[in-house]
Amino acid sequence: MSTSAKIFIAASLIGGVLAAGHMGSNGFGSTTSSSDDTNAKLKEVVANINKQTPVVKGNLRFDGVEAGDMEIRFNYTVLVSTIAEQDKPKLKEMVRPRMIEEYCNNPQLGGIHKHGVKAAFNFYDTEHIAIVAIEIPPTECRG
After folding, report:
1. Phi, psi torsion values for 136, nearest 5 degrees
2. Residue whose C-alpha is closest to residue 42's, from 102, 118, 105, 96
3. 15, 46, 94, 107: which could join 11 in a potential S-S bond, CB 3.0 to 4.6 Å?
4. Read out DSSP for 54-114?
5. 71-78 and 118-124: which strand pairing?
6. What Rg, from alpha-carbon coordinates, does the chain have?
7. Strand partners of residue 8
8. Which pairs with CB-CB distance under 8 Å and at least 24 residues apart come from 80-87?
């Protein structure tokens, strides 16, 4: 299988794991909450999501989520090291649009970008060495 095909498959799997892993009510409503309120709600969202992890789909494992100050970090493990080890920039280029779509439009995340929350998607190999990190500021979401 070509490297491009492996990267395409990885990008598709990532989207599937996102859809499977982000479940539950999130408690985000009005877009006028303070950063303290938003961070408190974010911690609740993270706790609810993490109750359902890990989730494995194909060669990718959704390990869980972490909350920071106005930031949510999604952590994944690529279970097959050959998927993109030599093509990190290409993987990032192919996966980033899917991450933006999921972060901005996934109803299970409740539009947290409207509260100024930044998203980070971190992909590690099985030794927990970073493969790709994708950051998405809330301004990249439309609506």
Report:
1. -130, 110
2. 118
3. 94
4. -EEETTEEEEEEEEETTEEEEEEEES-TTTTTT-HHHHHHHHHHHHHHHHHH-GGGTTGGG
5. parallel
6. 15
7. none
8. 81/125, 81/126, 82/6, 83/6, 83/7, 83/9, 83/10, 83/59, 84/3, 84/6, 84/7, 84/10, 84/131, 84/132, 85/125, 85/131, 86/3, 87/3, 87/7
How does DSSP classify residue 141? S
DSSP 139: G
- 49 by Cβ neighbours in 10 Å (0-12 / 13-18 / 19+) ranks as buried
Specify the 3-state DSSP secondary structure of 115.
Answer: helix
- Per the listing, tokens 């920071």 go with 68
Instruction: Read off the pLDDT of residues 9-46 as tens digits, 9 standing for 90 and up.
Output: 555 555 555 555 444 445 555 555 678 888 998 998 88
- Which among 75, 74, 139, 134 has a CA at the least distance from the CA of 109? 74
Asked which of 20-34, 74-88, 121-135 is least confident by mean pLDDT, the reply is: 20-34
User: Which among 16, 42, 60 has a CA at the least distance from the CA of 117?
Assistant: 42
Tokens of 79: 């279970």
